[in-house]
Amino acid sequence: MVEPNRISLANLPTPLVRLDRLSRELDAEIWLKRDDLTGLELSGNKVRKLEYVVADALAEGCDTLVTEGTPQSNHCRATAAVCARLDLHAVLLLRPPPSNHIQGNHLLDVLFGAETRAFEAEQFAEQRPAIVEQTLAELRAAGRRPRWTPMGASEPLGCWGYLHAIRELVEQLDARGLAGCDLVLAVSSGGTCAGAVLGKLLHHCDNINLCAVPVSDDVAFHEAQTAELCQTTIDCYELPIQFDPSAIQFIPGYVGEGYAIPYPTALDALRLLARTEAIVLDPVYTAKAFIALLDAVRARHLGVDRPAVFVHTGGVFSDFAWPDLLTMK
Ligand SMILES: Cc1ncc(COP(=O)(O)O)c(C=O)c1O
After folding, report:
1. Are residues 183 and 114 in the same domain?
2. Which residues are identified as catalytic?
3. Which of 91, 122, 153 represents a domain boundary (last residue)?
4. pLDDT tens digits, 217-247
5. Same domain (yes/no): 262, 169
6. What is the tens place of the pLDDT at every residue in 276-291?
7. Fewer CB within 10 A of the end CB, N or C, for the chain?
8. Contact 83, 58 (CB under 8 A)
9. Nearest CA among 162, 131, 136 for reference residue 147
C-alpha cells in the first residue's frame, strides 16, 4: 500500500456526540460525527480531502489551486480558506455566475482573496475540459504553477480523507463501548462516500452499516460513481482490498427536485435539529441526508439495535444565502 502524504489542516478528531434530546424524542440512539467542526472557516468534509490534495500540490511545487463549483460551493470556500492560510493562490471556476448580492460561501471566497472566474452553467457543462485546460495554460503562461482538483476534491487522493475518518470513528466508537453503528452521510461528488467505503473495507468494519443519501443524482449514478472512484483509488495506491458494492447502501428518494433545491421536509429536519440541539445543518446536503436518517429511524429501519450516527459534513455558511426559506413556517 502506498500511503500519500497529508498536511494537518483540520482539528481532528472531530467530536462524536450523542443527541440526547432527539434520542429521547424518537426513542432511539442518535449520534452525530461533527465534521462541521473540522475548523471554523475550514469547516466541513472538504478539509479532510484537501489535507491530501494540498500536500501533493506543495510537494509538486505548486503555488495555485484551481477548482470548480457553484457560488455556494462549500468546497470552493474551503479551498479558498486553505489557500489563504498557506499563502497559495486560489482560482475558482464558478458556474453559474454569482449574483451581485454577494453572500454565504461566496462572500467568504472573496474575503479569503480567491480569484473567481464565472461561467454560464450550460457553457461550463459543454466545454468543461477545454475551460479547465485553458485556465491552467493561462496561469502557467503568467508564471504560476497550478494544480487542478475537481468538484468536491473527489479525486482518488481526496478519498484518503474519509478513509482515515473511518478509522477515527472506529476508535471513538470503541472508546464509548459501542459495538458498531448505522452510519449515514450525504453523497454528491462522491469522495466522502468512496473514502468511507474504502475505510470500512480496509479496516474490516463489518459492524458499520454504511448508508449514503444521494442529494444531487439518482442511486444508479452514485453506485457507478462510487465503484469507479473506489477502484481507481485501490489501483492508484495499491490498497490491499477488493471493492465490494455490498459495503454501501444508498437510500433513495431524498434528492427532491434537484441539486441545491431545498424542500419542506428537509428544512423541517434542519429546524428540528436547531431547536432540539442547537446544531445547524445546511439546506443543500446535510438537511436532505438528515431527513432520510430521521425517516429511517422513525420507521425503525435504522438506529434500532445499534446507534444511528450521522456525519455532519458542514455547509453552514450556505444557510446565510437562504434566510427566507429557513425562517419560513
Ligand atoms: C456540506 C456537504 N456535505 C456533503 C457533501 C457531499 O460530499 P461529496 O461531494 O464528497 O459527495 C458536500 C459536498 O459536495 C458538502 O459540501
Report:
1. no
2. 73
3. 153
4. 999 999 999 999 999 999 999 999 999 999 9
5. yes
6. 999 999 999 999 999 9
7. C
8. no
9. 136
